[in-house]
Structure to design on (229 residues):
């Protein structure tokens, strides 16, 4: 199994530009999570999908952030327009199903730098 | 609201010595507890979990954790530390009641000194 795949691994962009982060979950997993990790705030859940439907987006910082999951094998997190304070490592994770006692499998992350 | 506390930002231990990384939690209902490890420039990797049953849970790479309901703790342990165990360790909690967000602790950096 290839694990959770994220692209790009690194993204450097200028303030005001649109940024799109991509995630391919593990085949057969029907729960998907987007997290943001910073030194100051630690690991924050941004949004949780189950069977491609957003279940909890309470962690999405503001309207500049949006996430989609058009099918079971692909999800995107978009920031438009980007700001320097969005600089962080963004992780995608998938889980076997919605049952909470299953562990999550994390991708390698996308390191975003907004200048 | 559920929460996780990892009281130590960093734990230093000599190679070969036993290690403990502390975690306490707060959650309504029965807890599901997890430990994850993060190596530099990598995503989190699952180590072990407690769902029910035996309070001592064994996981990957020789790690184990003890669930203590009265103290609401789930400390991570290893009898003999390796330099390669140096990493960032996260405790996480959720419960069995429908959709519950998994709450992660802030992380504890483990440094194993040769």
């Amino acid at each position: 199994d290839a694990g959770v795949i994220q692209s790009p691994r690194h993204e450097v962009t200028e303030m005001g530009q649109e940024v799109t982060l991509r995630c391919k979950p593990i085949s057969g997993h029907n729960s998907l999570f987007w997290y943001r990790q910073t030194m100051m705030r630690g690991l924050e859940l941004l949004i949780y999908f189950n069977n491609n439907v957003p279940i909890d987006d309470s962690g999405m910082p503001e309207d500049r952030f949006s996430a989609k999951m058009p099918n079971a094998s692909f999800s995107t997190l978009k920031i438009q327009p980007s700001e320097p304070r969005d600089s962080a490592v963004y992780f995608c994770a998938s889980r076997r199903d919605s049952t909470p006692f299953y562990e999550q499998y994390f991708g390698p992350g996308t390191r975003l730098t907004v200048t | 609201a559920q929460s996780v506390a990892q009281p130590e930002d960093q734990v230093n231990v000599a190679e070969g010595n036993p290690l403990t990384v502390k975690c306490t939690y707060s959650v309504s209902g029965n807890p599901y507890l997890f430990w994850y490890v993060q190596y530099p420039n990598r995503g989190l990797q699952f180590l072990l979990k407690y769902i029910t049953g035996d309070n001592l849970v064994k996981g990957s790479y020789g790690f184990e954790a003890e669930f203590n309901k009265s103290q609401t703790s789930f400390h991570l342990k290893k009898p003999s530390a390796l330099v390669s165990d140096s990493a960032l360790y996260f405790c996480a909690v959720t419960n069995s009641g429908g959709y519950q967000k998994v709450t992660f602790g802030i992380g504890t950096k483990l440094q194993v000194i040769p």
About this structure: The mean pLDDT of chain B is 94. The CA atoms of residues 94 and 100 of chain B lie 6 Å apart.
